[in-house]
Amino acid sequence: MSISIAIVEDEKNYNNALKKVINYQQDMKVIAQFFDGNDALNNLASISPDVVMMDIQLQDMLGIEIILKLRKDMPNTQFIMCTSFEEDEKIFNSLKAGAMGYLVKGESMDKILSSIRDVHNGGAPMSFSIARKVLHHFEKEAPEVKGFDELTEREKEILELLSQGLLYKEIADKKFISMDTVKKHVGNIYRKLHVNNKVEAINKLNQTKN
């Protein structure tokens, strides 16, 4: 089955360029385009695509606001921020809201396409410059780890495998369970650790090892 994608981007030329390149791929298809935030906010949940490419600075609202309002209603959708902004505040607010990826618009289309596939398979794709900022931020901050003791042994095993860079399918194969079961365990991990994405969860795991 192909990966279903929605694009939320008010720059029409970029929105249409993304659609054209994505639809040229055999394993993915754009099922919706939105050119303003309000339209996306009202319609995304009913469409429920696998992946949403989300601009941060829309003319009528922030893409971060849309994710915050829709995240609980779209548990199976992965959000990738695709933006020209590289400020720390916007990066971390996006990740806290539940975005699983963060790409700078200058990235090549090949990088964008591989990021869509990556996030769909349980990855957390980021532009190199963004990944460095995230790692530097976590090196500076080491808050108390809460909720780790609540994890089951299986959840701890899966979190460890996530930290090693394994994708959902690879974890499923390794543990002889279905990918849906892996996703359920990951959802429980996020809830117990009070995090919204894999980057934050792995950071908390690393804190327990220090």
TrEMBL record:
Family matches, as SUPFAM superfamilies: C-terminal effector domain of the bipartite response regulators, CheY-like
Location of 4-aspartylphosphate modifications: D55
InterPro entries, alphabetized: CheY-like_superfamily, NreC/VraR/RcsB-like_REC, Sig_transdc_resp-reg_C-effctor, Sig_transdc_resp-reg_receiver, Tscrpt_reg_LuxR_C, WalR-like
Domain of life assignment: Bacteria
Pfam families linked to this entry: GerE, Response_reg
Signal peptide bounds: none
GO molecular function, one term: DNA binding
Keyword terms: DNA-binding, Phosphoprotein
Alphabetical list of Gene3D superfamilies matching this protein: 3.40.50.2300
Domain HTH luxR-type: 144-209
Gene Ontology BP annotations: phosphorelay signal transduction system; regulation of DNA-templated transcription
PANTHER family according to UniProt: TWO-COMPONENT RESPONSE REGULATOR (PTHR43214:SF43)
Protein name per the record: DNA-binding NarL/FixJ family response regulator
Originating organism: Chryseobacterium rhizosphaerae
